[in-house]
Amino acid sequence: MTEQPGAAGRDLPPEFIELIRTWFGPNADEVIEAFRQSGVDLNSLFEASGMDAAGVDFGGVISELNRLMRTGSPDGSINWDLAYDAARKVSLSKGADPVIASRSAGLVVEAFKVADLWLDQATDFTPAGSDAVALSAADWIEATLPRWRQLTTPVANSLTKAMTWLMKQHAEEHPGVADVAQGAQRMLLPMIGSLFGLQLGQALGQLSREVFGYTDTGLPLVEPGATAMLPEVASTFAKDLQLPESEVRLFLATRESAHARLFKRVPWLVDHLYGAVESYASEITIDLGRLETMLADINPRDPSSIREAISSGLVAPLLTERQRSALRRLETALALVEGWVDVVSQSALHQNLPDLNSLREMARRRRAEGGPAEHTLATLVGLELRPRRARQASALWQSVTDRVGPAEREALWSHPDLLPSSDDLDQPEEFWDRRQARGQADAALDAEIAAFLDAPDSPGSAEPPTTPESPGSLDSQP
Known about the structure:
2% strand; two-stranded parallel sheet; mainly alpha; 4 strands
């Protein structure tokens, strides 16, 4: 006699069976039976969960799971359409995104022109050469999404590989529930890709109403050299500080232009920053204990609990030594960029903006603390894109400027090996003295080596011994 579908779970509420079918598809009955053969009593599990079939919105749960799996990719890759839609919706939820008026756009362009004139006196790096633009929040999302994709895809791919490996290991260790593991993989990977995209989109939507331009995160979010300003955000910032909008525009334009010059004139810098992110992502592993604990806390009554688990670090990685090294490299580079921009902007603006010190301090605090959107990104990507040591970097760049001027300062950006290290940030005012002492020591060593090689009795200066010509040589021929 053929067993009726769902017989393995015939004692369970039909809604619960439907939920399992949503997870595991046509093999749901076999999966339920595999659970029982492995000692898992689904009836006890259901009762222990405290769920009441009459009190659980199974329809909502199933609808949410179906949506996430339907919109997700089987390999767990990020759903970028979902990310974009979420970003737009969150941005609009903060208020209407007005079209940029021609007058606002003109004021932005004018601010950047003035900023470039002032920066010419503060740095030897020439203007980036791109036309400045005024952006709406929607414009910013559209323009920066490709870079966010570059930034987050390596992390998401590594997390997916780690999850796949984890489920494979579980299946090998528990052969009786191999079907369960396969079903879980079919369910989780599309969901993770969708949820990752959803959370990322929500963070970008919020950022679009907080950022001033392309370089607020410290990373170039468009092609190096481009400059932009969101006039609505700048205006709100000026009102909060009770400062003239014209001063705030000039301050923000100068910082944005300084970033643009640096990223444009130091061609290796962008790859250096994103390379650190990729190095970090390449070795992501999952904290299994944390994962199991957080999965246990997901409430089936509430579909949003799955999303909350992801956003609170469901797949928080364990750091390897190589990842710590990559994070240190990224942290140091971000601090050096932020410190350089701070010093150069201060030099360009100190005679032109009466409220410069207030603006400078506010910008430092804003970057150091971050906002909810930046915290969400840190949870998702595992990276905090904030220059923790920016004040020390500013002190270092100011010390170098005072000692040798802008030209020698900018020369340090000619190669990664010439940049100050994390250790140099510990004693920023002494950096140039240490660099000079090391250079003198290297020069003395080179002189000693050269003198040794040039000495008459040194092995390198001896004439090669003459040998009889071989019979086959051209000179021996008649």
